[in-house]
Design a protein that fits this description.
The complex is a heterodimer. By secondary structure, chain A is α+β, with helices and mostly antiparallel strands. In chain A, 49% of the residues lie in helices and 15% in strands. Chain A has helices at 9-23, 28-34, 39-55, 74-87, 98-111, 114-126, 239-248, 253-276, 284-309, 313-341, 359-371, 376-387; strands at 130-133, 149-153, 156-167, 174-180, 191-197, 203-209, 215-228, 232-233. Classes of the chains: A alpha+beta, B alpha+beta.
């Protein structure tokens, strides 16, 4: 297994690179797209890819060794991300495994009991899919307005309510659920955090078709769902703080991954254009715009490195900047590609819900990033009030 | 704190006292103030101007990163004077001039007694031969375009005085090319790129400082000014504009770091990144200057306020070195060449 070489970074990188060079045939993306790239194919593909990575011991490499992970250092985690991006293969923690591999460990490390860790962490390495049940019809940016009720009955909670926009809930085995346990307390103080088994009676999942044509996020209808009280993460009514830990997991290495992938895509875009003799290479406005994109992305890559290197002041200031900039970058870069592509970019072709495919697909998908994980407007509020000290 | 940080703190302290708004406005209004001359001498005395050159040459040995830090602090305070030209000439002379010439010139430049001027633009036909800096008869060091390469010269004492062109930005000066300079040496191949790289970097640093100075001024104003019974900084429409500007400043800082690192490690990347840095930072700064003036309301439209001084300094910077479009065109050329050789200009060292 490649992970066994983690003590020797140079050998580790070499082995990764060699494996990545042969595990997926270079034309895999085009192959899948030409087959139609249906929802089921894509799900099956993700499971297959997970299995290949698992054979190399790469699943949850950052989890501390005592919890069953490989305890990879930050530098090696960055190396893995770089090599995956360089090879143009799907991300290690992407798609339907995002919540399981990013949000669940962060939440568990923050607040879960020994028993809960022992019960759920091994399953992550087996390929359990998790979803996040936070948002509701009436609770988006104002998450603390959530109304799904959890009423204690003996050693169970009984849940009633509706969740919305829960990504990959249709594939998920468990859900990280936020529900209101004390309707009389101030809104941040009456929320509890629990693990809900998606196979429980009373859980109904309806996939929602997205602007890209794909089905990723879902609506959850919860009717008298019984969740054991043992599934409570942290104390009753103390779920808000844990929810913040879940959301904070989206920073750091995930941001690193986003910008490293963007870098490869941007460079590949020019290389392909040169090979094809694309007309935009002769247009001054496009040349200038491309050069400016390179400069902007490089500055963002440096900012992400600053964040990862800084435990102090930067750790509070930079995440909001990086969220705004890196998600905006995805939008302006795909916007550039749409304009360059002209009519050919307007012809509907099947495309995988992975970035780096059709420009219009990537552009639409980029709104998922600018809207979720604290919309960019919410980020601006945060920067203005918390960092600049402008009055509320 | 490292040396650079300690020095920065003391530069900030001195400038806060000696380059305050009142002195600045007296200078700009030509009320018999020689703020520029005094600051230059003081910068020499305190050793700031020698920040770049090595120990051997009598400097602090902090190189371009040191010079960029100084330029940034000076820009933040709108310090008047030929600082960027002096810093560029110091770098260039130490690196390229024959020993007897550098011995003759470095001391005076570092002490603040000699001023300097460099081409205001490297775009063919664009500059009309204009120089940026200060030309004092006799002593000033000037970098001039020669037949093929740049030449190092001093302005002569005799003859017609060199004509100064009044710029909108009164904290710096533009000059016609001296009619009869004393040519000291022709600079070797490669010097032209290096000079342009230094000029781009230091102009970008000055611009970033100006962005920070104007931004901080605006944040303070938004907290104090009240309308409709509350501080205008509480209006979300204004908050979001300020948040976006804060992000642009951080981005500019990262780009300057990138350019400084590239300047240090290799030649091709050095020219590419310094040019892109100057282009992106100065365009972002021009946008910021407009936003900040608007958010001040009428007070920002007055001569007494610093808003317009920042705006004019930033606009001059935007036009210096090369047009930003020319820099991006050249930048794309470098990207295309690297791509066809299978190289990348985006590597980041650990
Ligand atoms: C692709 C995708 C995947 C998602 N996956 C999940 C998931 O797995 N689990 C989950 O729980 N949720 C998920 N979400 C939901 C996401 O968290 C919410 O969309 C987000 O919190 C915003 O809420 P909203 O969509 O209701 O928009 P709203 O909050 O209604 O916002 C609408 C607009 O108003 C702006 N706005 C709102 N409040 C303010 C304010 N105070 N100041 C200024 N502007 C404001 C917003 O920025 C936005 O532009 C996902 C969303 C997307 C797009």
């Amino acid at each position: 297994m490649i992970i066994d070489l983690a003590h020797d970074p140079a050998a580790f990188r070499a082995a990764l690179r060699q494996w990545l060079g042969k595990v997926l045939a270079p034309g895999w993306r085009e192959d899948m797209e030409s087959k139609g790239g249906g929802e089921d194919d894509y799900i099956a593909f993700q499971r297959w890819w997970f299995g290949e990575c698992r054979k190399q011991g790469l699943i949850l490499p950052d989890l501390p060794a005592e919890l069953g992970g490989a305890g990879l250092s930050l530098a090696l985690q960055m190396m893995v991300v770089e090599e995956f991006a360089r090879a143009g293969v799907p991300p290690l923690k992407g798609g339907m495994y995002t919540v399981a591999h990013t949000h669940v460990p962060a939440t568990m490390l923050h607040a879960a009991s020994e028993e809960q860790r022992a019960a759920y962490l091994p399953g992550l390495i087996e390929g359990d899919v998790w979803c996040q049940g936070f948002s509701e019809p009436g609770a988006g940016s104002d998450l603390a307005a959530l109304r799904t009720r959890a009423v204690r009955e003996g050693d169970h909670f009984v849940i009633n309510g509706q969740k919305l926009w829960s990504s990959f809930a249709a594939q998920a085995k468990y859900c990280l659920l936020l529900a209101r346990t004390d309707p009389d307390a101030p809104k941040h103080k009456g929320i509890s955090y629990m693990i809900m088994d998606m196979a429980s009676e009373g859980v109904e999942v309806r996939p929602i078709k997205q602007a890209t044509g794909h089905y990723e996020f879902c609506e959850l209808f919860l009717t008298d769902v019984r969740v054991p009280a043992a599934n409570l993460i942290g104390a009753e009514n103390a779920g808000w703080a844990t929810a913040q830990a879940t959301l904070a997991a989206e920073r750091g290495v995930l941001a690193f991954e986003r910008v490293e992938r963007a870098r490869r895509e941007l460079e590949l875009y020019l290389a392909r254009a040169r090979e094809a003799g694309a007309p935009w290479l002769r247009r001054e406005a496009d040349r200038a715009e491309y050069a400016a994109l390179v400069a902007r992305l490089q500055a963002i890559r440096r900012m992400v490195r600053r964040l990862l290197a800084d435990e102090g002041e930067g750790a509070s200031r930079l995440p909001a900047f990086i969220k705004l900039l890196s998600t905006q970058f995805g939008q302006v870069y795909s916007d550039f590609r749409i304009r360059v592509a002209g009519l050919s970019g307007q012809i509907d072709r099947p495309s995988l819900p992975l970035s780096g495919s059709e420009p219009l697909h990537d552009y639409l998908n980029s709104f998922g990033d600018t809207i979720s994980a604290g919309s960019n407007e919410i980020m601006r509020n945060l920067i203005a009030e918390r960092m600049l000290g402008l009055p509320r | 704190m490292d040396d650079l940080e300690i020095l920065k703190a003391s530069i900030q302290q001195v400038l806060a006292q000696d380059c305050d708004a009142r002195s600045l406005h007296r200078y700009v209004d030509e009320q018999g103030s020689d703020l520029a001359g005094n600051l230059r001498l003081q910068a020499g005395e305190l050793g700031w101007l020698g920040i770049g050159p090595t120990d051997d040459a009598g400097g602090l040995g902090l190189g371009l990163p040191g010079a960029a830090m100084l330029a940034r602090e000076l820009g933040k305070r709108l310090a008047p004077g030929p600082f960027v030209p002096v810093l560029v000439c110091l770098q260039v002379i130490e690196r390229f001039a024959p020993r007897e010439i550098s011995e003759r010139l470095l001391g005076g430049l570092m002490s603040g007694e000699r001023s300097a001027a460099i081409p205001a633009s490297f775009d063919a036909g664009e500059s009309g031969g204009l120089l940026l800096g200060d030309i004092e008869q006799g002593g000033s060091v000037v970098l001039l375009p020669g037949e093929k390469d740049l030449v190092l010269a001093t302005a002569r004492g005799a003859g017609e005085p060199v004509q100064q062109r009044e710029a909108w930005d009164r904290t710096r000066a533009l000059w016609d090319t001296p009619a009869d300079p004393e040519v000291l040496c022709v600079l070797p191949d490669g010097a032209a790129h290096y000079i342009e790289m230094c000029a781009s970097l230091l102009i970008a640093a000055d611009t970033l400082g100006a962005m920070e100075g104007l931004f901080d001024l605006t944040v303070d104003f938004l907290k104090q000014r009240e309308q409709f019974g509350r501080a205008i900084g509480s209006f979300q429409a204004l908050k979001h504009r300020m948040a976006d500007l804060a992000v642009q400043i951080e981005l500019a800082d990262c780009l300057l770091e990138q350019a400084l690192e590239a300047a240090h490690t290799d030649n091709e990347g050095g020219l590419f990144w310094s040019g892109m840095c100057k282009a992106e930072v100065s365009d972002a700064a021009a946008f910021l200057a407009g936003e900040c003036l608007q958010l001040h309301g009428a007070i920002g439209f007055t001569w007494e306020h610093n808003c317009h001084l920042y705006l004019k300094r930033i606009r001059l910077n935007q036009a210096l070195v090369r047009s930003n479009d020319a820099l991006r065109q050249a930048g794309f050329g470098a990207l295309e060449a690297a791509s066809s050789d299978g190289r990348s200009l985006m590597e980041i060292g650990q």
